[in-house]
């Protein structure tokens, strides 16, 4: 065998082995399933429109609407390599829709040091109102507040300090200070780290949102003061962002 023939044979062998390895990679689907609680109480839309919860400030309240946006699901390997799954999901607890989300792209099975998702949209996605499905369900932030999209709409009623039943609208958007010229913005999207996982087959990530956490840590929320027009309240948006830290948790990963 000549030297040239040997080199050609070696190259073909390497290509063949590479193709075989690619063929043997196990591609799997990841599903993200969202459940909801108020501390130890399970929450679904069957519990809505009833004054049955008490926040950290002692106010009794109900939930009449809850929907929120997740995006940019990311799987990170120990070497820092990231697999970012395109797409987003509007979780709508009110209508009991999109509580589970399976991105169209698959991922290789194996060990991952981190699994992330973004609450809301990051700045690369949150502009120009280009998402017609979100536009059609009143998810747009008004232009006076910088445009883009909501991250969450949580609404209900509470018993105020005079004993009357009053509405509240806890809406999360990118914080904007309209008292500044030009407007001042501060990011309020955040990344949720679900930790390390090992995936061999199609898997479901069971994620819980503890709604009570939005009202208590580190800012004890007083609904008598902060109940409506919160999208125009720069400081309120920052407080919401600060209260994010214990809202989401990964309960389990199941086949």
UniProtKB/TrEMBL annotation:
Q: Domain Copper-binding protein MbnP-like, which positions?
A: 30-223
**Cleaved signal peptide residues:** 1-21
Annotated coiled-coil segments of the chain: none
Sorted alphabetically, which keywords does the UniProt record give?
Answer: Signal
Q: Which InterPro entries match?
A: MbnP-like_dom (IPR046863)
Q: Which domain of life is it from?
A: Bacteria
| Identification of the protein by name | Copper-binding protein MbnP-like domain-containing protein
